[in-house]
Write a structure and sequence with these properties.
It comes from Prevotella corporis. InterPro entries: NGN-like_dom, NGN_dom_sf. This is Transcription termination/antitermination factor NusG. Keywords: Transcription. This protein is of the alpha+beta class. It folds into two domains: about 1-10 and about 110-190, no CATH class; about 20-110, no CATH class. Helix content is about 20%, strand content about 35%. The protein contains five helices and 13 strands. The protein has helices at about 10, 30-40, 80-85, 110-120, 130-135; strands at about 20-25, 45, 45-55, 60-65, 70-75, 95, 105-110, 125-130, 140-145, 155-160, 165-170, 175-180, 185. A hairpin with a 2-residue loop joins strand 10 and strand 11. The termini are far apart.
Amino acid sequence: MKQMQKRYVDEIVDDGKPWYAVRLFSTKLEEVENYFKENGLESFIPMQYVDEEDAKGKLHHRLKPVVRNLIFIKQTLSDKDFKSMVFNSNQKISVLTKSDDSRSFYLIPHDQMYEFRLMCNPEIAIKKFISTDEAKMKAGDPVYVKFGPLKGMRGRLVRSSKKYYLLSEIPGISVMMKVSRWCCVPEKQD
């Protein structure tokens, strides 16, 4: 019997645990990812397909990290133990904090990280990754996607290049996915 290949969306699970955003000061993303995996921690690196031409002029469709200096780690340890693990790393890394003058780590809520990971699906081509500063400059209303393939997701409805996008922001990076504005309804504010 033919074994079915697991889809990206089936691998993304929301288990209720928040995530850390870890910044690298080198380009050794794979080494940092392996370090955390060897210590039993789950990581996430936003990836996208990129077309690259080899020396012979042949085009290759490869999966590559969106940014080379950011990795997300699921919180399964105390902050003290995680801080010790970061300190003991052979690579220079730091965990994003709540503010510039705070030493407390910023924890990305599980539901926000779940939606972000879903939006980072490399199979979906019509999306843009932007910096947190760029995301803050974009005007948009909070919405809930009621219909279509992004049904159930929340974010801000923004316009870019005469198209509408659902913008999801987390520390360090933001993603915008093409969406029809007719699929969105205003998010109820508490």
